[in-house]
Automatic annotation (TrEMBL):
Stored SMART domains: HTH_XRE
Top-level taxon of the source organism: Bacteria
Originating species: Microbaculum marinisediminis
HTH cro/C1-type domain location: 16-49
Name this protein carries in UniProt: Helix-turn-helix domain-containing protein
Lineage: Bacteria, Pseudomonadati, Pseudomonadota, Alphaproteobacteria, Hyphomicrobiales
Length: 91
């Protein structure tokens, strides 16, 4: 998170865009990893939809953090990392 924007319980559109770019992801790739449509990524990065403010939900913020830590999925017991092929459990 940039130092100029203190944590206040939300993720700004600029912080979301910076996260995506720091991960080296295109909007479509970020959408796929987060289980969203590309359009939602665009709304989050713009900070609004049809002139109304769009907040990034806590679930998405936490998913961004997990992805940045290399966690691709979690079934409640096993963590699947980004480096593992899909369908294989971690040991």
């Amino acid at each position: 998170m940039p130092n100029s924007e203190k944590f206040n319980g939300t993720m700004t559109s600029n912080q979301f865009r910076a996260w995506r770019k720091a991960q080296g992801l295109r909007q479509k790739e970020a959408a796929d990893l987060l289980g969203l449509k590309k359009r939602m990524i665009q709304y989050y990065e713009k900070g609004e939809r049809d002139g109304k403010k769009v907040e990034i939900p806590k679930t998405v913020r936490l998913a961004c953090y997990a992805l940045s830590q290399g966690i691709a999925d979690f079934d409640g017991t096993e963590i699947s990392t980004l480096s593992e092929p899909e369908g294989q459990d971690s040991a």
